[in-house]
Amino acid sequence: MKTIVIICPVYNEEDNIWNFYNKFSEEIKKNQLQKKYNFFFIFSDNQSTDNSKKIIRELAKKFSNVGMIFFSRNFGVMKSIFTSIRCLESNIDACLIFDCDLQDPTYLLNEFIIKWEEGNKIVYGVREKRKEKRTLKYLRNIFKKIDLVFRGYKVEIESGAWLLDRVIIEQFKKANFDQYLPGLVSRFGFKSAPIKYNRLERKKGKTKFNILDYLSYALDGIFNGSIAPLRISIIFCFFFSLSFFISSCYFLIAKFFFKIKFDEGIAAIAVISLFGFAIIFFILSIICEYIGKIYQSRFEQNEAIIEEINI
After folding, report:
1. How far is Cα 277 from Cα 267, in angstroms, rounded to an integer?
2. What are phi and psi of 74, to 5 degrees?
3. Residue 79 host element (H or E)
4. pTM for the full model?
5. Buried (b) or exposed (e) across 106-144, using 16+ Cβ within 10 A?
6. I need a surface site. Which of 39, 53, 156, 182 has the fewest CB within 10 A?
7. Are 47 and 12 in contact (CB under 8 A)?
8. In what order do the strands lie in the sheet with 66-71?
9. DSSP per position, 239-291
C-alpha cells in the first residue's frame, strides 16, 4: 500500500486541530481510501501561543498515524510547509497540504487523489469563489497582472490546498527556499491538474492574515524567483539616452539650421541633465544586474529551525 501524508501548518489553531483530524479521517473512511493507502498526519506548529502544541501532543499520543513538528519560533506558514515537506522520508508516495481552518473543503482529498492516480504529479485547488472584501479581491487581481508582467508567465498554482507526488517532494529536498512556494512549485514543471472549488467560511478561530500580510506575500510573489524588477533601471537608461539623443539633435538643428535663439544655458543644461541621467541609470542597471545574479544564487536557503519532531 502506498503512503500519503497530510501536512497541516498550525499557528494558534486550538479550536480546529481535533476537528481537522476528525473531518479528514471521516473523508478517508467515506471514500474507503484506507483500503488503498496508508494515511499519516503531520501537524507543524509555528510556536503557537495558545494550547495548540498541547492538543497536537494529545492527538499524537492517542493516534499512531499522527506526527508533529514544532519550530523554535514563528517562521511563517510558507517556510513551515517547505521544511515539513523536506522532513518527509523517501518512502512517502505523496503529500497533501491543507490549512487547519478547514476553509478548503475535505472532499478535495478524494478528488486530488483521483487526479494523482491519473498520472499528475501536482494537483492544486483553484478557488473560484471566496468570501472576502472587495478591496482584497481587487488587489489580488492587480497582483496577478503585475506578477505576470514581471515573471513572464502565469503562475497557475495557488497557495492553499495541494497534492505533491514523490518526485516533487524530492525536488523540494534539492531546492532552495522560496517565500513564494506556488512560484517554486511552478518552476519544477511536471504534469499538473487544477481542481476548482468554492472556499468555505472559517467557522472556528480567527484568521492570522491581515492586509499587511497579504501585501508582504504579494511582494514576495513578485520579487522572488525573478530579477525583472531590477531591470527597470535599464528601461530608464534607454528612455533618458533616447531623450538625450533626440534633444541634442533638436537643439543643434534648431540653432544652426533654423537660427532659433534660446535663453543662455538652457540648451546646455537640458542636454547635460539628460546625459547625466542616462549615465546614472546605465551604471545602476549594471549594478542591479550583478545584484540580481547574487540574489538568484543566494535565496534564503535555511529551513525553519525544528525544536521538536516526532514523525
Report:
1. 16
2. -80, 100
3. helix 77-86
4. 0.68
5. bebbebbbebbeeebbbbbbebeeeeeeeeeeeeeeebe
6. 156
7. no
8. 192-198, 122-129, 162-165, 94-97, 2-10, 37-45, 66-71, 306-310
9. HHHHHHHHHHHHHHHHHHTS-----TTHHHHHHHHHHHHHHHHHHHHHHHHHH
